[in-house]
Amino acid sequence: MAGRPPGNQADGKQRLLDACWQLLVEAETGERLTIAQVCERAGCTPPTLYHHFGDLASLELEATRQAYIRWNAVVVKEILHIKDPKKRLSAHGVAYAAWAHEHPDAYAIMFCRPGNEGPSITGPGFSGLVASLAEIHGCDPDDPALLPAALTYWGLVHGLSTLQNSAQGLPEGVVADVLARFEDVMDALLLPEAPKWAEDVAEIRELEQKLSEPAPRRQRMAGVR
């Protein structure tokens, strides 16, 4: 086992996260990581892992969460400059599928690995998708009626991304073409009334977003308690 190299605890924490993610991507299907493997790759000792994460499962979840953040940043960078919401929606789906094609092992861990928490409907990626649909349909992003449309589009993009990584003989360009055809259909349809589950999910999203916002600092004013 490698000893602990010089550096502060924060360095050790990030080394563990980086090492864990690298090993997850390199692992064979069904292979489970061990604490010894991660600590050796990170140059840390097991007590460092326990101190920062408690156990290996928590480390894997946090490493995957950070991978989601990096992945979303790549996709957002591709579409941030696009003002037209229809073109932005299309570019979002294409960038999503392109990243999945370029990083198939990482994509499989993030979206298809059993026991993984998976992406969140309160995360920035999904919120960006909802925002584009809201502009297209001229409604408020908090409208629950947008959720079925957003999940439908996400499901299509995810399915196409998975197919391109696993199906044999899928022609190049098929993802962009299928998405364009589907977007035309979505654009022509009016948003139906939101089902009950969409209203419930909208309330959960709103609550989780509020809880994730930093609490405002209390301002002390003279003469005011």
Write a brief caption for the model.
It is built from ten helices and no strands. It has 225 residues and is mainly α.
Report on the structure:
The protein is mostly helical. The protein contains ten helices and no strands. Helix 5 packs across helix 6. It is globular. The N terminus and C terminus are likely disordered.
Mean pLDDT: 82
| SSE series | HHHHHHHHHH
State the distance separating the first and last CA atoms. Answer: 57 Å
Largest β sheet strand count, sense and barrel closure: none
Helix content: 55-70%
Uncertain residue segments: 1-8, 217-225
Rg over C-alpha atoms, rounded to the nearest angstrom: 21 Å
- Count of extended strands: 0
Structure annotation, total helices: 10
Assess the beta-strand content as a share of residues. Answer: under 5%
SS class: mainly alpha
Shape: globular
